[in-house]
Design a protein that fits this description.
This is DUF2007 domain-containing protein. This protein is α+β, with helices and mostly antiparallel strands. 29% of the residues lie in helices and 13% in strands. The protein has a single domain, classed as Alpha-Beta Plaits, CATH 3.30.70. The chain contains two helices and three strands.
């Protein structure tokens, strides 16, 4: 297993885990149980996504594509320019 990504929060971790699963990549969240102790632990680096070694490269590519996503032109309301709506 390889740690391939540090999500910003548990919501992003869950979203990425589901996205990876939909693409056939088995992903696990590490450190989620440590979030309750955030006052006693470092603020960064608690969460991580782990995938099997043979799927790591594919998973990194999927996450890079997710992070590079942009809204389609004309597919957003006038009042929220530049915000990716899902």
């Amino acid at each position: 297993m390889q740690r391939i990504y540090e999500p910003q929060d548990l919501m992003e971790a869950e979203l990425l885990t589901s996205m990876l699963a939909s693409e056939g990549v088995e992903a696990h969240i590490t450190g989620g149980h440590l979030l309750g102790a955030a006052g006693d632990l470092p603020a960064m680096g608690l969460l991580g996504l782990m995938v099997p070694n043979q799927q790591a490269e594919h998973a990194r590519g999927l996450i890079a594509a997710y992070n590079a996503a942009q809204p389609l032109p004309g597919d957003e309301p006038d009042e929220v320019h530049g915000i990716l709506l899902c």
